[in-house]
Amino acid sequence: RLLRKDAVQVSAVKNAGNLTLSWPSQLTSSYQVVFKDNLTDVAWTPVGSVIVGDGTVKSASFAATGTQRFYSVLTQ
Question: Virtual CA dihedral for 36, 37, 38, 43, nearest 10 degrees?
Fold first, then answer.
């Protein structure tokens, strides 16, 4: 049986040197936050561990670097 994975709508909040990404999760889905320092980089780098969806809003918080960085949340 195939399950449809919905696109993730991510919100970001930076507060006191920390960055928090939040998104609504789905049951049977897992999420991995990843980043690139440059969009031309070939690979994304994982941040933290895989987050299991349960139908609630999930979030990941980490120290914001002083440099430009691009983030994405992958649905697995």
Answer: -30
